[in-house]
Amino acid sequence: MVSTAPPRVLTVAGSDSGGGAGIQADLKAMLALGVHGMSVITAVTAQNSLGVQGYWELPAEAVRAQFRSVVDDIGVQAVKTGMLASIELVETVSELLADVDAPVVVDPVGVSKHGDALLAAEAVATVRERLLPVATLATPNLHEVTQLTGITVTEEREMRAAADALLALGPRWVLIKGGHLAGEAADLLVGPDGTEHWYRAARYDNRHTHGTGCTLASSIAAELAKGREMPEAVAAAKEYITGAIRAGFALGAGIGPVDHAWRWR
């Protein structure tokens, strides 16, 4: 008896050797949400709970070959991007995504949880000009909002202006993540018709939050691949990441990861 394949989601991102973020977090979240995860590795990091000790980009031809190998044979029902590191890799991935007939969730990764740069400063303009216009959804945190638009958000009422500025760069939808603000963990989704969708959750006193952004973006991609509309996909992903943050655990001497398997424990 041959089983029917689950929805297929491709992550295009860097590898986290500590297993908490990047490709590893994406694939764990995809498994937890019932889709088949596949990967295009853009960079390899030496990384643990204390930070990123170094990273090495893969050649553009290796990224292109991985992408074509998966998409041309297996196909995808959603794509998520994370760490792209350099101008050349941002350009390469943007070009590849332009021909994909599936939702594309762009997590415009700029720095790690520990503050380590994961995107060359000179590549920020390329993300704005090439990558965001091919995104179905962009999911910046507040640091990335500033990096991409110059807008600094210090309170919740400023998030709408940030969303509008991001939408002007080309993505169809934008999710502004307010996790670094005080109070509730509030995120704002704005789409083509300008309607605001707010997602709120309790803020848990848990420092072990490594991989939050990667996990949320890949969770949204998983829900889109399963056929949910964008507002419902974000709601389901928000519920999943909130549980994963609540269950985050200590690992090593620094910041531990969110728990991708929290529903099974």
From TrEMBL:
Q: Which Gene3D superfamilies match?
A: 3.40.1190.20
The protein's annotated catalytic reaction(s) are: 4-amino-5-hydroxymethyl-2-methylpyrimidine + ATP = 4-amino-2-methyl-5-(phosphooxymethyl)pyrimidine + ADP + H(+); 4-amino-2-methyl-5-(phosphooxymethyl)pyrimidine + ATP = 4-amino-2-methyl-5-(diphosphooxymethyl)pyrimidine + ADP
Start and end residues of each Pyridoxamine kinase/Phosphomethylpyrimidine kinase domain: 16-259
CDD domains, from UniProt? HMPP_kinase
InterPro entries per record:
HMP/HMP-P_kinase_dom, PM/HMP-P_kinase-1, Ribokinase-like
Short name of any one Pfam family annotated for the protein:
Phos_pyr_kin
Membrane-spanning parts: none
Keyword set, alphabetical order: Kinase, Thiamine biosynthesis, Transferase
The pathway entry for this protein reads as: Cofactor biosynthesis; thiamine diphosphate biosynthesis; 4-amino-2-methyl-5-diphosphomethylpyrimidine from 5-amino-1-(5-phospho-D-ribosyl)imidazole: step 3/3
Q: Name one GO molecular function term.
A: kinase activity
Q: Which NCBIfam families match?
A: HMP-P_kinase (TIGR00097)
Q: What does this protein do?
A: Catalyzes the phosphorylation of hydroxymethylpyrimidine phosphate (HMP-P) to HMP-PP, and of HMP to HMP-P.
Q: Under which name does UniProt file this protein? A: Bifunctional hydroxymethylpyrimidine kinase/phosphomethylpyrimidine kinase
